[in-house]
Structure formats: C-alpha cells, structure tokens
From TrEMBL:
Signal sequence extent: none
TM region positions: 48-67, 79-97, 103-124, 136-158, 164-186, 216-234, 254-273, 285-305, 311-334, 346-366, 372-392
Protein name according to UniProt: Bcr/CflA family drug resistance efflux transporter
Annotated keywords: Cell membrane, Membrane, Transmembrane, Transmembrane helix, Transport
Pfam family membership, one: MFS_1
GO molecular function: sodium:proton antiporter activity; xenobiotic transmembrane transporter activity
Gene Ontology terms describing biological process: xenobiotic detoxification by transmembrane export across the plasma membrane
Organism: Filimonas zeae
Protein topology in the membrane: Multi-pass membrane protein
Primary localization class, coarse: membrane
Length: 416
C-alpha cells in the first residue's frame, strides 16, 4: 500500500514521527527529575540512573522482538500491544515506591515503547515509494528532534510545579493520545502473513537473510556508527561544557537545545538536496564533512585551541552532517525489503542503539578530565562510518552486476 496523494501525508508523517519519538521523549523528559526522584525514593542519583540503563537495555533488545511480530501479524496489532504496555508501565512508574520498582518498570516501558520505533520505520517502507523514503525519514527527524529541544524543559517544569510523578502521568497521556491517533488515523500498511513463522529457527534465518544483504549491512552500519557519534556527544557534553567551560546548568540547556536545533534543521536541508542529488551522493559528502569537523575537534581539544564558541560551532557542523546522512542511510538500508521490512527495521534499530550504548560507555571509561574522550569517539565514529560506506558501496555495485535488484533500489545507489 503506497501513499501517492499529498492530502494525508502530513497526518501520516506526524503520527509516524510521534511513534518514533516515544523512546527519545521518554528519555529526555525525565532527566531533570533525577534529584527529586532520588530524594523521594530515599536513594542516590546514581541509583536512579540505573533506570536509564534499564530503559536502554529494553529499547535495544525489544526491537528484535517486534520485527518478526510486525511481519507476521501486520503493523497495527503488535503496535497496539506495545503501546499498551508502554501506557501501563508509564502509569506504574508514577506510583513507584522504590528505585528497584522504577528500574523494572522503566525496562517494561522501553519494551513497550520500542514497538513504535520499529513500526514507524517499517511503515515508511510500506506506505511511501522507495525513492521518497529518504525525504520521509528527514521529516520524521523533524518530529523526533523536538524531543531534545523541549522535553527536558517540559520535564523540569512539571517536576518543579507538580512533582516528578506527574512526568510519567504526562507520558501516560502521550501514549494514550498516540494509540488513539494510530487507531483512527493510521492505515494498516501490511496485512498479516501467515507463512512467516514465529519459531526461533525461522526467525533467526530471517534475520540472517537480512544481515547477508550487502545494501542493508552497508547502510545500517554506516548510519548506526555515524549516529553513535551523537551519543558520544550526549554522554560527554555535560562534563565538557559545565566542568571544562564552566557554563551553568541553564546555559548548558540552551547550548544543548541550540545544537539539537541545527541537527533538526539540517535534516530538512536534506529534502532540498534530494531534489538535485541521490542519497548515496549526499551521504558521502556529509560524512566527509563530518569527519573533517570531528578531526578538527580532536586536534583543537588536544592542543587546547578551542574556546567555547569554537567547540559549539564544530559540534554543530558535526550534527548538521548527521542530519543529512542518517535519513538517507536509513532509507537505503530498508530499500531492498518489502515482505520483511519489520525484521529489517528491528535489526537496524538494535544496531543503532547498540552502537550508541557502546560509544556512550567508552566516553565514560576513557574519561581523563579533558574533552578528548568525547571528541575522539566522535571522530572515530565518523571515520569508521566513512570507511564502511566507501567499502560497502563498492561491494553493492559489484553485487548489482551479478544479480537482479529492484530498479528503484538500484537507482538510489548507482553512480551518476
């Protein structure tokens, strides 16, 4: 089922964006409430932070569960199931009486919420022509990008005015609104396929067949490792800005929001670029620029050459490039799949979250009271991603000469 007309595009993309933003919004919104949660539950902020770790575990592993379900039962039934779990777990978080209870409920919240992240990507592949999918992913980023800009501010306001429990009440209401919009406004984009087995053996074989596709692993890894640089920035930026550059918490919030805004705006620049260039051309140019900015960050922070405005400018360039590369990488990774788009989407999401979690951990482990661990990981991610892109795109074109590939898919990656 492809959406060709423009009348419903706005509503569809908005709902898909909200589904994709469930996870990020659930992370960003409750971060300002850590101290209040710790006081109320008679524990430490470090213990409360375990609820963030459990959320990341749930959102990484849960995506692999929903992929086969979305291909077997259609998109909406597993989506209803997942968002319902999210709603109930969010409400449970509001009534948590201990930090252990909160940690477990946040795990369940993530396991439910990640259904929206997997389904939204799969439904882009279902509902829109292949050659338009990169544009649609750019528009999804516009919705997702609102999260790091407004969610911490909203969470801080709710915590100060009503208390931290009401943050989870707000997330519960958000889940109810999303599942209602999904039911009434989002079409079923794929009918159930009873030929797809949910036994472990066939599921593993299905995942393996996706992983063996050169176009998938090239662009899924390119997008995931490049995006992992964003996680390195998120992990390291509080220390870099507040400790090394002595900005206040309020100033950090404005800096974080401003840099996030450049990421969102650049994803919309990608739509303009797609009118003149192919997705592969945009990714190559973006990663070359991103690698240059990252290397300048490493040199500048190692030699203490960067002031506050210089490091903000280079990080903004880094994320601008991310906003151009990521939508195209996502579109190209999913392009070869129609029947198993759910499984491909789940694998892509799991790879992205796994790479992000790894780089975040490495920034912490390599901490040496400088900005180099953050900028070094950002540079490694950009350079490795660029290397994978050049190697993998060569392999894809060689494979294309050996076998038949869907015309629209091949058009996205062939040389001009």
């Amino acid at each position: 089922m492809l959406i060709q007309q423009t009348s419903n595009r706005f509503i569809l993309i908005l709902i898909l964006g909200l589904l994709a933003a469930i996870g990020p919004f659930s992370i960003d919104m409750y971060l300002p409430g850590f101290p209040a949660i710790a006081r109320d539950l008679h524990t430490t902020v470090e213990q409360v932070a375990l609820s963030l770790s459990s959320f990341f575990i749930g959102i990484s592993t849960g995506q692999l569960l929903y992929g086969p379900l979305l291909d077997r039962y259609g998109r909406k039934k597993p989506l209803y199931f997942g968002v319902t779990i999210y709603i109930l777990a969010s409400l449970g978080c509001a009534f948590s009486t201990s930090v252990n209870m909160l940690v477990i409920l946040r795990l369940l919240q993530a396991l439910g919420g990640c259904a929206g992240m997997v389904a939204s990507r799969a439904m882009v592949r279902d509902l829109f022509p292949v050659h338009e999918s990169a544009k649609v992913f750019s528009l999804l980023i516009l919705v997702i990008g609102v999260s790091p800009i407004i969610a911490p501010t909203v969470g801080g306001y709710i915590t100060t005015t009503f208390g931290w429990k009401y943050m989870f009440v707000a997330l519960t209401l958000m889940g109810i609104a999303i599942i209602t919009a999904t039911h009434f406004l989002l079409p079923e984009s794929r009918q159930p396929d009873k030929t797809l087995s949910l036994k472990p053996g066939p599921i593993i074989q299905n995942f393996a067949s996706v992983l063996r596709t050169p176009q998938f692993y090239t662009y899924a890894l390119t997008g995931a490792i490049s995006a992992a640089g964003l996680y390195a920035y998120i992990s390291g930026s509080p220390y870099v800005f507040m400790e090394l550059y002595n900005v206040t918490e309020q100033q950090y919030g404005w800096i974080f929001s401003g840099i996030a805004a450049t990421y969102v705006l650049s994803s919309q620049l990608n739509n303009f670029l797609l009118k003149r260039y192919r997705s592969e051309q945009i990714i190559k140019a973006a990663l070359l620029c991103q690698s240059t900015a990252a290397c300048l960050l490493v040199i500048g922070t190692t030699m203490h050459l960067l002031d506050l405005f210089s490091i903000i400018a280079l990080i903004s360039v880094f994320l601008c490039c991310q906003g151009c590369s990521f939508p195209n990488a996502s579109a190209l990774a999913l392009a070869p799949f129609s029947r198993t788009a759910g499984s491909a989407s789940a694998l892509m999401g799991a790879i992205q979250m796994g790479a992000g979690a790894f780089t975040s951990a490495m920034v912490s482990l390599l901490s040496n009271h400088t900005a180099v661990p953050m900028t070094g990981m950002m540079a490694c991610c950009a350079l490795v991603s660029l290397g994978i892109l050049f190697t993998g795109s060569t392999l894809i074109k060689w494979k294309a000469r050996q076998a038949d590939i869907d015309d629209q898919t091949l058009e996205m990656v062939k040389e001009g």
